[in-house]
Amino acid sequence: xxxxxxxxxxxxxxxxxxxxxxxxxxxxxxxxxxxxxxxxxxxxxxxxxxxxxxxxxxxxxxxxxxxxxxxxxxxxxxxxxxxxxxxxxxxxxxxxxxxxxxxxxxxxxxxxxxxxxxxxxxxxxxxxxxxxxxxxxxxxxxxxxxxxxxxxxxxxxxxxxxxxxxxxxxxxxxxxxxxxxxxxxxxxxxxxxxxxxxxxxxxxxxxxxxxxxxxxxxxxxxxxxxxxxxxxxxxxxxxxxxxxxxxx
Length: 248
Prior knowledge:
By secondary structure, the protein is α/β, with parallel strands linked by helices. It has helices spanning about 30-45, 50-55, 60-70, 80, 85-90, 100-105, 140-155, 165-170, 195-210, 220-230, and strands spanning about 1-5, 75-80, 110, 115-120, 125, 160, 180-185, 190, 235, 240-245.
């Protein structure tokens, strides 16, 4: 089972890993595009006003640009420990047992505007680049990534659970993947999507799937696993599942 997560805008600083080495990241087929994007982002960091415009940053966020200037030289840490925010707080890899953490490292991967895709244990530096960012002199990130990333995702033989947000799913499709919608249900029966709530519950689902000893092979097995965990999951027979949770 492969669980695809969205990245987060916020990243944990520092790390004790060696500087970035694209050669050790998962999916070496992506190295050429990774190199092109990393070089472009690093070069852009030399022009602070241009970086602000391209990355949608304010002067108060210039530290993010400084991080981009050190992509090749800054320390690294595993991807699952680099990304922060609501989803990753709910995932909470730091509280996993050693066995659970090992499974999480194998099963979880993160969609990335900078690297295309990174495995949970891939060592990466802190950076700032979103799927919607426009790098001067380059095509859109979707145009850059799709030809290289789509074949990588298409070649995955295990069940894929795609929890990526729309902008990252648009970088390349994951054929046949199971998707998960999260709906908040009010006492009157009405339902809605709440972004913050959605991220937290996807993080909890990712934790459950990453740490479980079960290995579902299809959407029915996945639905069964989630229901056994006490989750209210609806399934219309297609590749999409709907997780219904009480409104906060």
